[in-house]
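Hello forum,

I keep getting stuck at the same step: I have a sequence, I want structure tokens, and every attempt I make locally crashes halfway through. Rather than fight my setup again tonight, could one of you with a working pipeline run this one for me? It's a single chain of 656 residues.
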Amino acid sequence: MSLEPNDPRLTAYALGELEAEDLSTFLAELEASPGARAELDAIVETAELLRQGLAQAPVSGLGEAARARIERTLAEGSKGADPSEPLPEAVPPQEPTKVAKIRPRRRRAWIFAVAAALPFALAFGVFSLRSPMRTNEKSKATDMSPSPLSARGRLMADEERREVPAGTAGTLMPEVPNGERGKHTEQYDAVLDNPFVRVGVDPRSTFSIDVDTAAYALVRRFLTNGSRPPRGAVRIEEMINYFSYAYPEPSAGAPFGVTTEVSAAPWASAHRLVRIGLKARSLAMRARPASNLVFLVDVSGSMNDPNKLPLLKQAFSLLVEQLDERDHVSIVVYAGASGMVLPPTSGDRKREILGALERLEAGGSTNGGQGIELAYSAAAQSFAQGGVNRVLLATDGDFNVGTTSQSALIDLIQAKAKAGVFLSVLGFGDGNYNDSMLEKLADKGNGNYAYIDNEGEARKVLVREATGTLVTVAKDVKLQLEFNPRKVEAFRLIGYENRVLAHSDFNDDSKDAGEIGAGHTVTALYELIPAGGLVPGAEVDGLKYQKPAPVAEAATSGELFTVKLRYKLPESDSSKLLEVPVTDQGAALGAASPDFRFAAAVASFGMLLRDSPHKGSATFESARQLAESGLGQGRDLEERRELLTLITRAEGRSPR
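Reply #2:
Ran it on my machine without issues. Output:
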């Protein structure tokens, strides 16, 4: 079915007022109606020209005192003000500014009705071209919400960027120069290092994998700008997993393989360090399945910085250049309201997609929840059976209108992910960056989280690693290690603090865990204290009512531990199990692989930045030397060299 050019839903859609339940049907009809699409463009253009003209026209308004009295009277429910009370003097008219003559291609009755009413409303100061004031739930600072977004992606308002008071319970603020802290409202969750666990008390360790890389890019941004990153931004597993490692390809038919290596811990010579590596099967871009992608773009006022919306456009343009006729792209934008600026469009119509991206402009407050709802609706409308269905959210995370609480947004994302549409999150910018929110959304949306701070990072995430970013080969990937008490006194997992699971979650297929994309590598490090070694921390009293159970025969096998891994194929709800026993051949650090030494260097660096209680003898100099010995000759050699520069920048800055 197609749309008639006089269908009233065209106007409702242009104003962002079309009901969500009508959206899918409307978009399908719009796609098949060239005449209706032309009419929609005309409506949008006319409304935009009218807004521009009215915004610059001379306005006679009431003074602030008169406005306040009228608003107070309305709030108190009075039928009207006392006519005997004189009104304060009105503000004199503003001088008109010359504007281009408005020549809309088509005119509609509703536009003239609005135009006729506006002069009277403006003269008495009852209405404005903005919506009524709202209260920001996070900061209690008022903001003026913009008019809806046009189908061209332009905000129909020009709100100035707001400043929000710093400080939120449960978050960490970055180190910034004195006098500047009030201008920085970045939010990071607090992180406490995993402690050593005695094998005699609990021989198991269970956690979800994590392929996010945002923490490394965030650390790089802070250090490059001369600031020490907050502890919450230093997620060691994400720093380690930012780099690729030379793990072998999995065997035929398997989504990934498992590799292990054991050597000395560089920061504690009496301890052993274990590296567990997963390698997902590689997939060439030309061999990937068809993609149904929705670019969900934050165009609020906080995105009006060079390292935000302009960089975002550049990043998405790089991805668009790799798409073809198999793919479809939709673009949804959100600020105070949300709207679709590009309905599902074939990937070979690059000029049309890139043009829609280029026309995006920033302004207004941020209603992220409404945008997410619309993006998932658009993805469902063009769902690719057997293909990639993914929303790519690009934002600074500064949600301040509508659904703003983390729990509400997480519930929304989890519900949508069950329908088979996954979420990737791309973070941009600084100052008001909400890392805490974005990490959780990606985690619960069956996706990954990257931070884009420059064009090089955009190319890494959306060009070089595009298949890993887009194509999931396994979901709900969990690891569980059982340590041999004859070999291990205690263990600690390095990083993954917010990915630790209950042991019972390992066999529970209803429990959510991490996803791994095509070609991705995932690395986890454990520090082990050999049997009989001294465990840091308070001593544990002996048990009164039971004695330690005797060890099983398997404990005499010489195995150090067994790693179990559960995963689901993307279309399955039932997990599969892999099991790999691991022994320790007593290798010295010098005999370890370059990849082992480099991963250990990144872990050392992260512990130093976080001032970890487990950093042992690590120093910035020893971390740099270890990294140099592990540079190798891989494709990410330049990125590994960059780590040396960051260590040099961090050296000499005292812990906070």
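The longest strand covers residues 268-280. If your local run keeps crashing, start a new thread with the error log.
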